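Now for one specimen:
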Amino acid sequence: MRLKPALVWLAVFVSVARADPLAISTSPLGGGDFGPLRWRGGLELSSSDENFGGLSGLTLSDDCTELLAVSDTGLWFRAFLTYQGESLVQISGAEIAPVLDSQGQPLKRKAVSDAEAVAALGKGRYMVGFERRARIGVYDIGKAGFKARFQLLKSPMAIAEGPRNGELEAVGRFTAGPWNGNYLAISENHLNEQGHIRGWLWEKEKTVAFSISRREDYSITDAAILPDGDVLILERSASFPPGMAIRRIKATDIGVGVTVEPQILFAGRAPFYAIDNMEGIALCERNGETRLTILSDNNFNAALQRTLLLQFAYTP
């Protein structure tokens, strides 16, 4: 997909034609509580705009009202969330803009535009992880808005050594816990000799390479770091029917050469649950609750896949 020249500098407001309310369980007997997770609402998003879709990484403002995502075609997607009581009920003000390279130009080729992860660094700065030509960049959106240019963030070379289209799916930075100040990257399908998924922490020149035990046919598609430094990982099963799992990694379990065994918080499959190609996860705080929000990637194939936005309250 090639972007129109007018998109080089200007964000384009998008008409999200539908934001239909969604129940997490498709069974009339199903509830919305899953251990530490309590349902807080969901939406199915759709639009006639050809640039809408492919959303693969997610972050939310601290108060859960502003959503910023990246697409695997090199686009930003921003929107605002509306609540009614405790529940997520609507989005508004949606806009799309191209992610820019270091020269201020849109990323036009799939090999360089495959943005898969985004995480907030504070003060309006975000780190974005790219697959295929694996790299991590920092964008100062707080200062430059969507005119922000790619600034390379040095990262372990091993990140780019994974299989094509499976190198990098999750990024973040620790602000608390034993790894405070370290960056985080997790691959989708870069496996070690035992078949576990590779991950890395690093601060300056020091790298901690570890792995995460793989569960069935699930691959990691995103991660979010909790206030105490533990990590939530989002996992997807691409088999039919599609599945989603959420697991928690204790920060104290991570170490050089260690394979961590995360705690399972949720696992389910369509059609019993509103699950599609789940690729983005983010944390925020609302009314004293830690909110966990999950986003799916429709692969620009609205006939077969959906863009779902799911939200839970999380009480460890």
Notes: The chain has one domain: 5-314.
